[in-house]
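Dock magnesium ion; give full complex structure.
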Amino acid sequence: AAKTDGRNTWRRFDRAMQEKASERQQLLAELRGALSRDEFSLHYQPQVSLIDRELIGAEALLRWHHPVLGQVSPARFVPIAEESGLIVEIGEWVLRQVCRQGRAWHEAGLPPITLAVNLSAIQFQHHDLPSTVARILDETGFDGRHLELELTESVLAGDEARVAQTIALLKHHHIRVAIDDFGTGYSSMAYLNRFAVDKLKIDQSFVREMDTDRNSASVVTAIIRLAHSLDLNVIAEGVETERQAQHLAQLDCDEAQGYHFGRPVPPKAFTALLQTLPEQC
Ligand code: C2E
Ligand code: MG
Ligand code: MG
Ligand code: MG
C-alpha cells in the first residue's frame, strides 16, 4: 500500500509540475507580444523624507494588463521575463518611459523628485546597459541626477571588475544606486566597500514585523546604523502604519515608502499629487 501511495503522490507531484511548466510556457508566449501590443504601464509610488514627510521621490513599478488574463503581477511575470531574456527589452522600455515621464513633469514646472527604476540582474549584466542608459538620458533630456537604479544584492555578487565598471559608467551621469530588499539576499557585505552604492532599501519583511518581533526590530536598527556609518542613505519599504513610520523616524531612518504614504498609482494620479506640492522657484 505504501508503495502505491508513493507512486500516486509522485504522479500528483509530476502533474502539478507539468501544469506549472505549461502555465509558464503560456505566460511566456503572451509576454513576447506584450510590448508591441502596448500592454505594459507604470505605476508610481511615493517616497517621503521621514523628517518632514515631504515627497522626495517615486519608485516606478511595472504593470501588465493582458486582455484575457487581466492584471498579471510582476512577481509572476518578471521571473519569466528574466529567464527568457525578454527583461532586457522590457527594462529598456521601462527606463525610457520613466525618463520621459520625469522630463514631462520637469517641463510642467512640477517639483523635482528622484525617480527610481528596478533593474534585474540580467539587465544589469547586459553589456549594453551603460550605453543604453546614456542614450535614453540623452534622448529624453532627463537629468541623471534625478534617476536612481534599484539593484538587488545578487547583482553585486557578480564579476567584481565588471560590476565596478558598470557602476562607474552610470556614475558619469550622476545616477544613484540603491540596494533593494536589503537584508534578504547575498550574505557578504564586502561589496558595500567596493562599489559606489548610495542607498539601502530595508526589505519590507523586516518593516512589517518590526513592531511585533524583536529580531526584526534589531535587523532594522542594524541596517540603519550600517547605512549611516557607511555614509549611505536608508529607506524603509512596505511602511503600512503610522506606528512603523514613527518607530523608523525614531531610529533615524531617512526615508520611507509604503501604503501608509501612498500606493503605487498611474501617472495621472501621481501628476495630481505633484500638483498639490508647494511651488519650486
Ligand atoms: P520591489 O522593487 O521590492 O517593489 C516593492 C513592492 O512592494 C511593489 O510590488 C509594491 O507595490 C509593493 N509595496 C509597496 N508598498 C507596500 C506596502 O506598504 N505593503 C505591501 N504589502 N506591499 C507594498 P509590485 O509592484 O507587485 O512589484 C513586485 C516586484 O516586481 C518588485 O519588488 C520588483 O522586484 C519587481 N518589479 C516591479 N517593476 C519592475 C520593473 O520595472 N523591472 C524589474 N526588473 N522588476 C520590477
Ligand atoms: Mg524596488
Ligand atoms: Mg523591494
Ligand atoms: Mg522585491
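Observed: The beta strands are 40-49, 55-66, 70-72, 114-118, 147-152, 176-182, 199-202, 233-237, 255-257.
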